[in-house]
Amino acid sequence: MAHTQRQLHLGAFVYGVGHHIAAWRYPETNTQGLFTFDFYKRFAQTAERGKFDMIFIEDIPALPEHLETSVQYTVPVRAEPLTLLSGLASVTSRIGLAGTVSTTYSEPYHVARKFASLDHLSRGRAAWNAVTTSMEITSQNFGQDHHLDHSVRYERAEEFVEVVTSLWDSWEEDALHIDKASGLFADADKVHAIDHRGRFFNVKGPLSVPRTPQGRPVLVQAGSSDTGQNFAAKTAEVVFTAWQTLEEAQAFYDSLKGRMERYGRSRDQLKILPGVLPVIGSREREAKEKEAQLQELVLPEVGLSMVSRTLRIDLSAYPLDGPVPDLPDAAEINGGKSRYQLLVDMARREQLTIRQLVARVTGARGHKTISGTPEQIAGHLESWFVNGGCDGFNIMPPYLPGGLDEFVEQVIPILQARGLYRTEYSGTTLREHLGLSVPDNKFLLKARHQHA
Amino acid sequence: MAHTQRQLHLGAFVYGVGHHIAAWRYPETNTQGLFTFDFYKRFAQTAERGKFDMIFIEDIPALPEHLETSVQYTVPVRAEPLTLLSGLASVTSRIGLAGTVSTTYSEPYHVARKFASLDHLSRGRAAWNAVTTSMEITSQNFGQDHHLDHSVRYERAEEFVEVVTSLWDSWEEDALHIDKASGLFADADKVHAIDHRGRFFNVKGPLSVPRTPQGRPVLVQAGSSDTGQNFAAKTAEVVFTAWQTLEEAQAFYDSLKGRMERYGRSRDQLKILPGVLPVIGSREREAKEKEAQLQELVLPEVGLSMVSRTLRIDLSAYPLDGPVPDLPDAAEINGGKSRYQLLVDMARREQLTIRQLVARVTGARGHKTISGTPEQIAGHLESWFVNGGCDGFNIMPPYLPGGLDEFVEQVIPILQARGLYRTEYSGTTLREHLGLSVPDNKFLLKARHQHA
């Protein structure tokens, strides 16, 4: 019976015109759709047809450093996530809407207000992916000549999330009266200034948006470093991550969930969803050929420069068929530590040459690629899910719109038939889809504490 | 012939559940609609049916200071404007979408990116109302204990707009190739870092969004002080303003348009739209009764506290039926100077008591209220328009949704019959509706200059 089984949670990850780095060159890809609303509307409606928990949009508020390669050969342009999600809210009715906003380059009052607004206008479907932004060049678009240190970015992020959740709680649920006869709009005693004074932020509040349908929008995070895990264990409700093997995924799953108790949280208050890039064929050979075809569309300079960027070393100075050079530990770098470590571990474990490493990671940017038949892909997802590797997946279609269509039409029905996945939404909010309760309102907890 | 006449431009101004301060208590008002998307969707679609140039959303990222009055008796809660406009973009096809974002509490890279995204997703209908934010308490939501001085706010605003327009120009129109065969996505030589280093901002660029359908989103401003007028004369394409008499409107119109030449701009590159709050009745007496009914719904403490806030003096310490006390010149205050001066001038000119001043300004917040038959209202609009008072109006329905429905159904047809107003959109972008050309790309101008 589907009802008694633990259920998979799925995100549909929007990324340009597809996740494969050469997606835009793939014949079936609608590359012209990049800035038309209809392209994203089709994506969101297809994902909703597939009963996904949510769509997810990443973000970096900058273009990558080397315009010669990034702009000439890849698709680094993006619509701003909240603009896009708000548009999609009005053409969907159930699916969750998760968007990324950096805590390093934003103000908490703006972020709290935007996601609260989206939660109201979508009737309870908003989620915020709080990231610290690892790409150094971003700092130069925001008046800073140097990127903040990794640890300082996380300290700022923690305080930022603290301020945002306080603002979301600043209106109690029953503050609004809206009584035309007496003229009482709201009970001022249930609307709280937050009076936050901290290291990074001073914010008075209250928010100018009342408490939202979900109580609070869902909190998402994506960092996998030790610092990132503690941050997630304390506050995140969904974590996106990237692993190549089930063993890595299991170790991370146990490590992160194991940290939650010290923050007074139970393991089911957080869902872990690794990214997966599925390349689907009706036969395995067809899928492998499709993957090879995508890989052939990657211009060599693009892959090399991409991996060089992640590893913070110019690999073009080394022989392509020689070994990946020795690299320092993640602790010594000031960037996206978990992605860095993933590549270093992969190169060491499999003793890869530079050419091999580039081929392996350019496609899915470090995420797991699975190419095979729908049954093989469903089997892989089930295996990670039932063996303690995850609570679901963030699905990364290699090219669009076809990559998502195929997943929804061919893989979802298998997962449903196996009782692993919903055949209809049972709730209306993203919290309901994910099985997440609403965190208690801080101001009510405080009041209770004072009475006790 | 309609074609040969100069045409009125109209904005439909969204403000809570209506512009009258007591709108929410009015029997016909849909007060529950405040945070439902369908409420705003109906507003936008009605305005589009009325062939309005644009809808317009104001913004203050804070609640007013005195929660006891503001939250208890008025409707200070709002959805964040860009969230709302993006949602409305997908349920409309022609009408312009103008939203307010403060230059005092934002980062130019974010603002440039959001409006560029909205311009793409709406196919050329975005406009940014750049305001400096006059409400002092806002500063406390953004880490500042004191509000920036009026003049510093404008200096920051000028640099802010300079950065934003440079970012909008950072992709040349023909930079995108999107050539699948060769793998060339964009011409890196036509994508420019802006390398801005100024007093308030250091921004490297380029924007991560290519040049938009309108070239640049339309620039709106609303300040009417001397500093505000110079800023508008230099950069604004639409100006919202508030006047009580045709003479004031004419003087402002001449003053602002007269300043444009010194910035190398022609008078038709800027449209001036005063706000008007129409109270419509099938007979004049019915309209006056409706206005009186709305006015009776204003609780006395609300009006007094609102006017006290604008005048920066606690009027409850003075006799209600005594004269408005002497007040300093606008030059000496650090807030919304033009609204302040408007009230001071009105009180002096008409020798109003405090009670009379409160009654006059609480309804429309200083904007012009016209109550009368559809013919009388159309006549008033025509008179200001043909006598050099304005290029059109920002229509402020007193209550919603009825106030806009009535205007579209009863006043618009009269304006159309008189040949003053479009019966169908002739273009698809907001620039086309307003008859505004696209400003030249700064990087092309620079290149031309270097070649000459």
Automatic annotation (TrEMBL), chains A, B:
Organism: Paenibacillus piri
SUPFAM superfamilies: Bacterial luciferase-like
Record domain Luciferase-like: where: 27-389
GO molecular function annotations of the record: monooxygenase activity; oxidoreductase activity, acting on paired donors, with incorporation or reduction of molecular oxygen
Keyword line: Flavoprotein, FMN, Monooxygenase, Oxidoreductase
Binding site for FMN: 59, 100, 150, 154, 224-225
Cross-referenced InterPro entries: Diverse_substr_monoxygenases, Luciferase-like_dom, Luciferase-like_sf, NTA_MOA
The family this protein is said to belong to: Belongs to the NtaA/SnaA/DszA monooxygenase family.
UniProt-recorded name of the protein: LLM class flavin-dependent oxidoreductase
Pfam families: Bac_luciferase
